[in-house]
Amino acid sequence: MKKNKGYNFIKDIPVFISIAVLFVFAVLFLELPMREFSDNENRMLAICPEPSKKSILDGSFQDSFENFVSDQFPMRDELLGLSVLASRVEGKQKINDVIYAKEKNGQTRLLDDYKEPQNEEKFIDAVGRLYNGVESANITVMIVPTAYQIYEDEMPPVLLSQKPAGQQDTFEYLKEGIIALEGSEKSGGINIVEGITDSLEEGKDAGYNMFYRTDHHWTLYGAYRGYLALAPYLNIPVNSALEDQMTTVSDSFYGTTWSKVVDYSVDPDTIEIYENLAWDKSLVVSYEDTKETSASPYNMDYLDKKDKYSLFLNNQHSLIRIDNPDADLTRTDGNERKSIVIIKDSYANSLIPLMIDQYETIWVFDPRYYRGSITQFVNDHPEVEDVLILYNLQTMDNDRGIGAIY
Amino acid sequence: MVFSSLLFLIFFLTALILFYFPVGLIFGKIKSEKAGRIGISIQNAILLIFSLFFYAWGEPKCVFLLIISSLVDFIDGILLEKFNDRPTCRKIFLGIALFINISLLGVMKYANFFVGTINRVAGTAIHLPSIALPIGISFYTFQTTSYSIDVYRGRVKAERNFFRYLTYISMFSQLIAGPIVRYSLIKEELTDRKTTMDNFTNGFRRFLIGLFRKVLIANELGALWDYLRGVSGISVMGAWLGFLIFTLQLYYDFSAYSDMAIALGLMMGFHFDENFRYPLSALSITDFWRRWHISLSGWFRDYVYIPLGGNRKGRFRQLINLGIVWFLTGLWHGAFWNYVLWGIYHGLMLVLEKFIWGRFLEKAPKFLRHFYTLIIVIFGFGIFYFEDMSAFGSYFTYAFGMAGNRVVGPEILWALGNYLPIIVFAVIFMFPVFPKIKAYIGKLGENGKNTITFITGMVSVGLLILCIANLVRDSYNPFLYFRF
Questions:
Q1: Cβ–Cβ < 8 Å for A322, A364
Q2: % pLDDT > 70, chain A
Q3: Which of A129, A173, A387, B304 could bridge A406 with an S-S bond, Cβ 3.0-4.6 Å?
């Protein structure tokens, strides 16, 4: 054997590979085209900031630059997946605020962690303002639990031991707060939809999937159970055949919860929609902000994209008007109701199609984007007899539109 | 900028490698003394530019403070030498330098704290604009101070080249989180050091180890500690597990930073002293302080304790001196009373060990001594953590079961269920396992050693990519020692 007294190159090869790795990332960063939008994260990515004397001196340029580096990092999504994989191997059950739950059939369900609400008063206050401002329409508030509550039993016991206070408590708190608003300035109360959790549990027990396993939204089955709970408050006769009229339009949906872990070992979700064949003839869905119209509440273009849930009501719009001249206006109390205003978060996007058959006109407001006063709008449209406020417990707390629902 | 950031790894470090090392290799090839000097000058210039950029990235305004502070001690050093035969003048010059250094630290770091304390005690309402603590000021003012004192004492010759002096003070590797490097230690390497493949690769290997300890261990422990201290109604055992986890986090975080600092220095041809020697395996508090943040305790010993008279002026003076040293050690860590409390707590434990139970401790079995030390240390870091006195009080109420809380709670299950491998790993490697493995490998002979180096090196490549992945994953990456 040759005696090597000098410098041994072989043993240092890994050092040079490591350094090469750093250089490769640097070169890829500089050479790859910058991305403006991340499909996976569903957000705009930071781009290279413009330095100015002021921004450099106060350090804001440096901060934006570091955001730019991490946002535009080569193979960002793949690296995220690698990091999650390592955490899974270590045995972590909760990664990036995503809980790995297991369905009874062994499939993985990803649950968004539930953060105990902090801003209940803000919501109650906003509902109160709307209530005091609206002259004649009935107001119904629907607050939907999240998958965290409905699928608690599928969570790893280790995590369950430390769950935050129940969503039911928050619901009761909101209910009391809203009831306390009543009788202040005018008679007639606010309807608060109860029994949503029970209805969802029933659907779950009947073998339907109430929430996407990879997304924070409810499925159409879940939305249908919500609709069953809501119907009595609006005196809508329940169409119990709906559940069997749903069609699967995608079996490759990876939602926003999945995007936080980029874990391909989790099976994708299916997306179901409900369509009434009669809609083709007369239904008009008008997106007032973009001036588009459609004969369907679904935009199937989204099936080719990552963000497939956006097919429901064509993603986000400040105001949508849905006209259905063939709607069945009969109500269980014998009256006719033609028109409703819905103030909502994205959960409503999959529930609204189920209500189309019962209203001549549905106005859908997203207070995050709608700049006018919704109260004023309702008062200017005397044909609007109902106002529905629909949020899930988590967006109720942190949606920046909440303050603007009146 | 921190070492464990994408920006540092991908751009700063690669650029440094690209500019710094070829210079050393090229000028090292030329066998002439003059070429060597020019090479070092160029490398120093590159290092200075990189360091100033590194610091200005985080503190664009305070970079001038750093330069002015360096200039003061640099001029002072020259004056101290010039007036070699005028003891009074020298005392005045040293006094000026100390006054400026201490005032700088006092104003930038402690003004709000002192005024706040005065307001509380005296009921006054003195208002002060809040001053943001410049990163690293606690470290570099200690370096400049030690320089002036060493020149005054004649331990080192004053540096005559300001840029060289500034290169030393601003050197990015230890500028913002230590170790506190004394001028005497690197004086020679500032003018004469070798860029060798061995230094470079050994340094880089160590840098990776530091990076792994920070990103893969300390950050994970940090997330667990964040969880534990957020648990409402935490159990007694849970609270103590929290103390342990925070201690481990602090140790891995801070010593990893020192690892990386020493490693970067080595890559560039500098040899810094170790700053941590497995402090959590210490067998007494006295032992702990010989192993924890060695450059800081050494600084206080040489520039405060011994000048005050140390133990040479009787038992009473010694106690007073220890009190001063540990009050200041605590205060150095942050302008909050919890740090002072922590310092005094450790001072007290040292005194008790020295004068009361040290003799008995030495006779106790090893595991008992280790357990005793660990309990005192992790409880101490509990004090250390809470800057907010009410959060402090509440957590400690739970730690002693005085809130009617359970002894064992479900949060322990949660912690172990999610973090067991990390905790086990962190506990094993708080002992000097690594040197033992190294010694074993050393026995394998040159070939065996190289094979192991190669294999672990390849594993490191994978871990490096995992570190980058983790950094991409989360922006959760604060270095704990930034506050000091």
A1: yes
A2: 95
A3: A129
Q: Nearest Cα to A91, choosing from B205, B85, B423?
A: B423
Q: Which two tokens stand for residue A154?
A: 């599928």
Computed over its alpha carbons, how large is the radius of gyration of chain A?
25
Per the DSSP assignment, residues forming a β-bridge with A140 are A191, A388
Q: Is A23 near chain B, with CB under 8 Å? A: yes
Where in chain A are the domains? Answer: 10-74, 94-404
Contact call for residues A250 and A303 (beta carbons, < 8 A): yes
Domain chopping of chain B, boundaries = 6-195, 199-483
Is residue A27 less than 8 Å (CB to CB) from chain B? no
Selected residue of B5, B232, B414, B425 to mutate for chain A interface (largest A Cβ count, 10 A): B414
**Nearest to residue A345, comparing CAs of A173, A144, A207?**
A144
How far from chain centre, in Å, is Cα A150? 16
| Count of A-B CB contacts under 8 Å | 133
pLDDT one-digit tens code per residue, B291-340? 999 999 999 999 999 999 888 888 899 999 999 999 999 999 988 889 99
Separation between Cα atoms, residue B462 and residue B468, nearest integer Å: 10
Tell me the average pLDDT of chain A. 88
Question: In whole angstroms, what is the distance from residue A307 CA to residue A316 CA?
Answer: 12
- Which of A40, A60, A63, A83 to mutate to probe the B interface, most B CBs <10 Å? A83
pLDDT band at A165 (very low <50, low <70, confident <90, very high): low
Given a contact cutoff of 8 angstroms between Cβ atoms, the answer to whether A342 and A388 are in contact is yes
CB contact under 8 A, B9 and A17: no
What is the ipTM, given to two decimal places? 0.90
In whole angstroms, what is the distance from residue A380 CA to residue A374 CA? Answer: 10
Torsion angle of the four alpha carbons B263, B267, B269, B271, in this order, in degrees rounded to the nearest 10: 10
Nearest to A396 by CA among A162, A121, A169: A121
Could you give the CA distance from residue B91 to residue B100 in angstroms, rounded to a whole number? 14
Q: Tell me the C-alpha distance between B72 and B74, whole Å.
A: 5
User: How far, in Å, CA of B423 to CA of B417, rounded?
Assistant: 11
Q: Do A11 and B14 touch (CB under 8 A)?
A: no
Distance CA B266, CA B202 (A): 8
How many Cβ atoms sit within 10 Å of the Cβ of residue A209? 20
Q: Which of A5, A10, A15 to mutate to test the interface with B (most CBs of B within 10 A)?
A: A15
For residue A190, what is the enclosing H or E element?
strand A190-192
B472 and A23 within 8 Å at the Cβ level: the answer is: no
pLDDT for A15-66, tens place per residue? 999 999 999 999 999 998 888 887 777 778 888 889 898 989 888 899 899 9
Tokens of B357: 């139970």
Which residue in chain B is spatially nearest to A29 when comparing CA positions? B10
Catalytic residue positions of B? Answer: 333
**How many helices (H) and strands (E) in chain B?**
23, 0
Distance of alpha carbon B90 from alpha carbon B84, whole angstroms = 7
| Residues facing A271 on adjacent strands | A250
Strands (E), A4-97: 37-38, 43-44, 94-95
8 Å CB contact between B352 and B381: no
**Could you say which of A19, A26, A86 has the minimum Cβ distance to residue B204?**
A19
3-state secondary structure of B113: helix
Q: Which of A7, A15, A22 sits opposite B14 (nearest CB)?
A: A22
Q: Alpha-carbon distance A225 to A145, whole Å? A: 12
Beta bridge partners of A312: A298
Task: Give the pair of three-digit tokens for residue B77.
Answer: 């050093």
Q: Is B473 on the interface with A (CB under 8 A)?
A: yes
Residues B260-300: tens digit of each pLDDT? 999 999 999 999 999 999 999 999 999 999 999 999 999 99
Put simply, whether A6 touches B (Cβ < 8 Å) is: no
